[in-house]
Design brief:
Structural class: alpha/beta
Number of helices: 11
Number of strands: 12
Order of helices and strands: EHHEHEHEHEHEEEHHHEEHEEH
CATH architecture of the largest domain: 3-Layer(aba) Sandwich
Shape: globular
CATH superfamily of the largest domain: Type I PLP-dependent aspartate aminotransferase-like (Major domain)
Strand content: 15-25%
CATH class of the largest domain: Alpha Beta
Strand order of the largest sheet: 2-8-7-6-5-3-4
Largest sheet: 7 strands, mixed
């Protein structure tokens, strides 16, 4: 007997690539050594694992405040930005209401919509995956979405909406807009300083990318108090464990490390982009910690795996497209060396 609810019967589980390579550049992860010393500090801390976490996450929110400049009443935290975006759908979208996003974009947005029996619309990008703001606004007016999710910089293309463009979209509608800025530390167009200027905007951030802490699964939302209060009604108690909260707090206290790391990633990203273009590859300018490109080489991913390098391969409408994370200087050099050998 199939006991699944109707909305999820056509879904396939989200499966990560189990391939093991010494140069792993497929998942936009950061430098394993950036905050490695916090593991030792964690072991020396006085965390008590027999107690539930402080559900107000007061120390963590204090450091988020020091980073982005907003009080705890304007912040909620969660088990990665993925949980928080799921919470946004759970909080604000009813069955048969519409969620609008970009196409292509992060695949989980459409999955969240399907799980909650909502309609999903992907606003088509133009040639070269450029986002046409006027076209998005037209789609918004025609489809009247309850929630709009914008990934900026966009994953997997790396394209960036400017502040001016995001403002134009936000002002064009009363719909709630969730601005997913998971990669924005690598870009220069964050709207975080203006989030309180709009009553229909929330911004989702994470420590997975720029802070190189994907393994602790900590993200947060910044928004006006009304939006945060609504999400708090749905958020499960103790949704972030004590260990993750501690490490995220300590990393935010040492955010200068992240700033230095981001500077290096931007420099390495430009090197990879220019090297691919020089090799005749159709690569796309990126505002994130990866480079998206097209290649007609048969079995490119497998040929790179044979050289101990793993990148992300896409399929379906993006067949022939790839995404390589920007790693350490040594990892990037190994990727480019392997790529040159393949071609």
């Amino acid at each position: 007997m199939n006991r699944e609810k109707e909305s999820i019967r056509s879904l396939e589980p989200y499966v990560t690539n189990p391939t093991v390579c010494s140069v792993k550049l497929d998942a936009n992860e950061g430098d394993k050594d950036l905050y490695r010393d916090l593991l030792k500090k964690l072991g020396e801390s006085d965390i008590t694992l027999n107690y539930y976490p402080d559900d107000s996450y007061s120390e963590l929110k204090k450091e988020i405040n020091n980073y982005v400049g907003y009080e705890p009443k304007n912040i909620t935290v969660g088990n990665g930005s993925s949980e928080l975006l799921d919470l946004c759908v759970k909080t604000f979208v009813d069955k048969d209401e519409t969620i609008l996003s970009l196409d292509p974009t992060f695949s989980m947005y459409s999955i969240y919509a399907q799980v909650f029996s909502a309609k999903y619309i992907g606003a088509k990008a133009e040639e070269d995956f450029k986002v046409n703001v006027d076209s998005i606004i037209k789609d918004i007016k025609e489809n009247n979405p309850k929630l709009i999710i914008l990934c900026n910089p966009n994953n997997p293309t790396g394209s960036v909406l400017t502040k001016k463009e995001v403002r134009k979209i936000v002002k064009s509608t009363d719909a709630l807009i969730a601005l997913d800025e998971a990669y924005m530390e690598f870009g220069d167009e964050s709207l975080i300083d203006e989030v309180m200027d709009y009553d229909n905007l929330l911004i989702v951030k994470t420590v997975s990318k720029a802070f190189s802490l994907a393994g602790i699964r900590m993200g947060y939302i910044v928004a006006n108090e009304d939006i945060i209060t609504s999400i708090e009604k749905v958020r499960a108690p103790y949704n972030l464990n004590s260990l993750s909260a501690y490490i995220a707090t300590e990393a935010l206290r040492q955010k200068e490390r992240m700033f230095d790391y981001v500077k290096k990633i931007k420099e390495e990203r430009e090197k990879i982009y220019k090297a691919l273009v020089y090799l005749g590859v159709k690569a796309y300018k990126s505002g994130a910690n990866f480079v998206f490109f097209k290649s007609d080489i048969d079995n490119l991913q497998k040929k790179l795996v044979d050289k101990d390098v793993l990148i992300r391969k896409f399929s379906g409408k993006l067949d022939g497209y790839y995404r390589v994370s920007v790693g350490t200087k040594g990892q990037n050099e190994k990727f480019l060396e392997a790529f040159k050998e393949v071609i």
